[in-house]
Amino acid sequence: MQARSPVPHRSGTLDPTPGSRLAEKHEVMKGPIQNAMRQLTRAMRPLALRSAGKEGSANSVITHVGRRSGRVYQTPVVAVAHDDSFLIALPYGERTDWLKNVLAKGSATLLTGGKTYQVDRPEVIPMAEATIYFRPREQRMHRQFHVGSALRLRRG
Q1: Residue 129 located in a structural domain
Q2: 52: which of 9, 10, 45, 76 fits an S-S bond (Cβ 3.0–4.6 Å)?
Q3: Is 95 inside a domain boundary?
Q4: pLDDT tens-digit profile of 94-130?
Q5: Residue 53 neighbours by CB distance under 10 Å
Q6: Is the CB of residue 155 less than 8 Å from the CB of residue 147?
Q7: Is residue 3 part of a domain?
Q8: Domain at 111, CATH number
Q9: Structurally, how many domains does the chain consist of?
Q10: How far lies 6's CA from each of 22, 76, 98, in Å?
Q11: Contact in structure between 67 and 101 (CB atoms under 8 Å)
Q12: d(CA 48, CA 51)
């Protein structure tokens, strides 16, 4: 018998029961898939940074300060504007260094659409609250890769 895929709720997200196999399956990418994606992301970062943040680009650049080193880093992300904030999907969950840096500092700079914004008050929120503000293509990718959370940054 073929396994049935879960049915999305009206919000467009999956709502598995906590602790179930479905919930475990839909958590953040893990293991070999995540490692492969991280390697690909590292290899593609310089190319992504060339166009990210420019007018017409789907990618943005978040500039943040290392919480231990104090160095300034730039990371390509997909950010969408909503009211007085920006939302960034977290496909790797809350374990990324760039996210830890932004949360520790409490602020960052976001370059998107050719404009630079000072952002602060970072808050990790469930993807269910953020998904409707992303383009349909990105929403599909979030579902496909089981992205469970997003970062909300307020314009400073």
Answers
A1: yes
A2: 76
A3: yes
A4: 989 999 999 999 999 999 999 999 999 999 999 999 9
A5: 24
A6: no
A7: no
A8: 2.30.110.10
A9: 1
A10: 8, 31, 32
A11: yes
A12: 6
